[in-house]
Amino acid sequence: MLKGDGTMDLSNYSVRTDLALEAHNLASPSGEVIPGVLTSSENIEGIRISKTDITSQEGSLAIGKLPGHYITIEVPELRKKDSNLQDRVATVFAREFEAFLAKLNISPMGKVLIIGLGNWNVTPDALGPIVVENVMVTRHYFELMPGEVSPGYRPVSAVAPGVLGTTGIETGEIVQGIVEKSKPDLVIAIDALASRSLERVNTTIQIADTGIHPGSGIGNKRKGLTIDTLGVPVIAIGVPTVVYASTIVNNTIDMMRTHFQQQTANTAQILGLLDNMEEQERLELVREVLSPIGHDLLVTPKEIDEFIEDVANIIASGLNAALHEAVDVDNVSAYTH
């Protein structure tokens, strides 16, 4: 589609990602500084921790993410089902989440409500409900037998409210009602995300203090769970479990070009016009081709059943350690069953 000035309008064909790290990389492919966006990263024995702080509206518009603090934990080897690595990831997650709690001034006894967004019946979307099944809930003990609760625990409640298609009620409305009745000091919302990279699917965890919009990963517009809508701080935890087919095709073209560049200097003879196309133009072409056969597709790895359980257990174990002082944050087991 052409704009009035004759240039191509690619706004509907932007690379789709829920990860602030990927959005920043897209906005700054050469690593140039973006005003209002601060980044840092470190590696801890195969675990890469990247922090993105968006401090101004200018920075927010530049990378397409809300102002706030984002932490991305990348573990490429997570798919190898190494139990020791999973335990270390859970420990790193717990430490980073503790830092978020401190930044939001949540006291050790502050009440926490965990919301597991997603659909039990769709494996790539079941992250939230599985985490809820495995977190340590304690609020009922404080309500029914407060004198019996050991020191080092806080009131934690958790619920998986389902999805609009099965309940007929907007998730935001359900959560809002629960918040009004239980009056937590913090809401933690957990949801599946979309990535622009297959390598990050089920190997990456994002923590953000900007809240979350249920269904945003697959393009659905839903009422957000944010401090503005709920009246309490909201920390969002997400794991990319799907990528768009157009993104995979686009990445494949990049990989093909890199491969052919190792063989010949004249890659244009092999790839033709694709060789000189910008990423946005290639995305437009790919989606135009895919549209007649059912629009863009969402793709997930065939091993998603195992991956989703492992990642959900890592998050649940990390939350248990971060939320309850009685749980040793330096010795977290990613297996909660």
Provide the descriptors you would attach to this structure in a database record.
337 residues, alpha/beta, nine-stranded mixed beta sheet, disordered N terminus, protease, zymogen, metalloendopeptidase activity, Peptidase_A25
Summed up:
Helix content is 36%, strand content 18%.
Set out the fold topology:
Elements: H1 20-27, E1 37-44, E2 47-54, H2 57-63, E3 68-74, H3 83-103, E4 112-116, H4 127-134, H5 139-144, E5 156-159, H6 164-167, H7 171-182, E6 186-195, E7 204-208, H8 227-230, E8 234-244, H9 245-261, H10 268-271, H11 279-290, E9 298-299, H12 304-323
Parallel strand pairs: 4-5, 4-6, 6-8
Antiparallel strand pairs: 1-2, 2-3, 3-7, 7-8, 8-9
Fold and architecture overview:
- It contains 12 helices and 9 strands.
- By secondary structure, it is an alpha/beta fold.
- The radius of gyration is 21 Å and the shape is elongated.
- Strands 1, 2, 3, 4, 5, 6, 7, 8 and 9 form a 9-stranded mixed beta sheet that branches.
- It has a domain at 110-246 and 297-323: HybD-like (Rossmann fold, 3-Layer(aba) Sandwich).
- The protein has helices at residues 20-27, 57-63, 83-103, 127-134, 139-144, 164-167, 171-182, 227-230, 245-261, 268-271, 279-290, 304-323, and strands at residues 37-44, 47-54, 68-74, 112-116, 156-159, 186-195, 204-208, 234-244, 298-299.
